C-alpha cells in the first residue's frame, strides 16, 4: 500500500477585493477536488482557507501514485463489426480507433445471447508528484474573477498581482510555475506585523506558520474574532451594534488579523438625519454604528482594523478624523438643502436623464403623478388621500438633485421625506416619499399606507412599462434595471391588499408614454408586460411552496390579476390539503367530463330527454354555477371551491347511471351538452384537469 501525504498550495497576492475573494473561496471548494479527480489522484478531504492576500488549499491523504486502470468498452455486434469473410468493417475500425486500441486487439464475447466486440484499454499508474504541477497551475487558471489584471511583463491574468507561491507535498517542493514565479517553501505573514518571508518545513506546517505570522486564515474564524470584539465593545459602551450581513462579509475579507476598536464623533452631528450618518459610516467607511437601549443612534461607532493593536489610540484617532470630515460634509449638505423648499428641486430633475428613449427624471415624475391619480381613483381613496398621493408623487424624486443625495445616494427618498416635513408637507406625504422605493427586495415591508403604496406602485410600474416599451426588458439572467424586483414589489403590494387593478394600471402607464410621444407597439408591449407580471407571480407562488399544477390550473382560466392568482391558488392548495380524497375525485370527474364534452354543441339541455341522474346533475351544475358567481364576486374563493365540491355526488351518479355515447343521436348530444354545462361551472375557478394530471 502506498504512503499517504499532505498537499499544501498557497497563492500569495496583493489584496483581493472582498466579495471577489468570497466567491473565489466558494469556487475553490469545488475546483480543487475536481482537478485532482480529473487525473485520478487519490486523495482525502480538501480544505480551503483564504485571506485578502492568500488562497490556501490543504489536501489530506494524497497517494504516491494514481491507481492503475483497466477500462472495458462494448462495441457493435460481431455481425456488424466483421464481414462474411471475417474482415473488420468500418464499424470495427472506427470503434477501435475511438478507444485507442488496434483493431486486431478487439475481443469477441457473448452477452445476452448476442456476440459483441470489446476493447480493453489499460492505463498505467502514474507518479502523483509529476502530475501535481499541471493540476495546480490549472487551479490557478480555473478561478473565475469578475475583473482580472496583468502586471509587470507577464501575460497571465489574475484578480491581483501574484507575489509568491508555496506548493509542498509533505516536505517536497512541487515546481508550480505562474506569472514568472516558481513555487517554493517560503510564505509571507501579516503585511505589517510579520511580513516574512517565513519558511514552511512541511505541507502540514503551512497553516501553523501563517497563523503564527498574525494571519487568521479563514472567513469563519475572522468573523468569529470580529463578533467577539463587537460583543466586548457593546459590553463596554452599553450600546448595541448593527452588523449588516453584506458589510460584515466585506469587512471580514478586508483584514488578515481583525482588531475591533471603538471611536466617537461630536454629538452635534446627531442633529443631522440618522440615515446620512449611518450611510457615511456604514456604506462609505465600513464602520458599524452603535445604538442605545431605546434604538437611538449614539455618537460611538465600531471600526475593524488590520493594523497593529499596539497602536490602537493612533488608529482610532485617524478614523475619528475621517468620520469628522465625512459628517461635516453631510451636515453642510443637509443645511444647504434646507435653504430651499423641496418643491424647488422638482424642475431641476430635467437635468437628470432617466433613460435615453424615455427622457428625464422630470418627465418620469410627471408620469408618476398621472399614474398615481389613476391608482387613487381606482382604489376609491377619499379626496384628502388622493390629493396626498398626487402631491407625494410630484415630490418623490425631487431629492435626487439635492446635495445630500448626490453625495450619499443610498438615502434617496429618505432625505426627501425630511425635506418635505421641514417645508410643511403633511406627515402622510412625507412618509409616502420615504417609502416609495419599498419594498426594495423580496420580503421587505411594503409602504405603510395606501397613499405610500400607490406612489410606490406608480413609480415601479412606470419603470417596468417604460423599459419594456424602450426594448429594455430583462433577458435570461440579465436584468440591469432590476425590473423583476420592481414587479415583485408591485405584486407584494397588491397581495397586501392594495385595491387596484394591475391590468387597468398597465393600460394607464402605457397611455402616459403614448401621450409623451414615445413610439412603440402598444399591443405587443402590453402583452409582454402582462405576461411578465404573471410569470413573477408564478415564481413567487412556487417559491412560497405552492404546487406548480395548482398555479397552472388557476392560470388556465385566463385570470391576470396577481392578487386573484395568488388567492385562488392558495385556496386551491388549501382545499387539496384539507380534503384530499374528495378533491382528487372531483378533479378526476372534471377531467372525465372535460375529455368527453363537445363544446360545439353548446350548453342548452333539453330536460324532456333527461333521466333522473341527468336532471339531478343539471340542477346541481346550475346551482353550483350561481354560487360560484356570487363567491367570485366577493373574492371568496374557498366558497367557490366548496360549491364545486358539492358536484361530486351528482357527477358520480351521472357517470354510473347514464350511457353518454348512446346510439340515439339526440340523447347523446343532449348528454354532451349537459357535460358542457357541468364543465362551465368550473371555468372561472380553475382547470381541474391540470391538477388531475399533476396528481398522476
UniProtKB/TrEMBL annotation:
**GO terms for CC?**
cytosol
**E.C. designation(s):** 6.1.1.14
Question: Which domain of life does the protein's organism represent?
Answer: Bacteria
Localization in the cell: Cytoplasm
* A Pfam family this chain is assigned to: tRNA_synt_2f
User: Which InterPro entries did the record assign?
Assistant: DALR_anticod-bd, Gly-tRNA-synth_bsu, Gly-tRNA-synth_heterodimer
Q: Which reaction does it catalyse?
A: tRNA(Gly) + glycine + ATP = glycyl-tRNA(Gly) + AMP + diphosphate
The chain positions of domain DALR anticodon binding read 589-677
Look up keyword Lipid biosynthesis and say if it applies. no
UniProt xrefs under PROSITE patterns: AA_TRNA_LIGASE_II_GLYAB (PS50861)
**Entry keywords, A to Z:** Aminoacyl-tRNA synthetase, ATP-binding, Cytoplasm, Ligase, Nucleotide-binding, Protein biosynthesis
Q: What is its main location?
A: cytoplasm
Task: Name the family the entry cites.
Answer: Belongs to the class-II aminoacyl-tRNA synthetase family.
HAMAP family per the UniProt record, alphabetical: Gly_tRNA_synth_beta
Q: How does it assemble?
A: Tetramer of two alpha and two beta subunits.
Q: What is this protein called?
A: Glycine--tRNA ligase beta subunit
Q: Whose protein is this, by species? A: Enteroscipio rubneri
